Model the fold of this input.
Amino acid sequence: MSVTPIEHASTAAEAVRALNHATLSAGPANGSDGYVWPADVDAVTAQLAILAQRLPQALDQAARWLETSAATGRVGHDKGLDGERAGVLAAVLLRAGGAAAETMLRRLDEARQITAHLTSTVPDTGHHGPLVVRAGEAPTSLREWE
Done:
């Protein structure tokens, strides 16, 4: 049995939800198997960058389907709007989402330029407390560190 696009998208969304839950706290000391080492953050960031890299294609393919289907009269609108125009507008917005994912990818790649070089300053004692950074104290770019 073939997996549908809806099922694939649902699986991706569920995976991100599970990641969010797994990383709610700062590690085993807080009852979670979340982040323990800086390398954990780097590895997760790398995987999220791959996700961001793949989103524009998925969104563009959905946009192309809508445009083609709308142009052939296969798209309607349940509020009585012109189906073709609504389909084309949705396609434009899907592509804008793809562009936003490309921006996210660039930010994640920039973050990885830093996280790939982070190391732990604490020995592996089995107890890892959270790093607390107060609002306004964290730099927003690599340039602020230099």
Q: What stands out?
A: The two ends are 54 Å apart (CA to CA). The mean pLDDT is 87. The chain is about 60% helix and 0% strand. The first helix runs from residue 5 to 22.
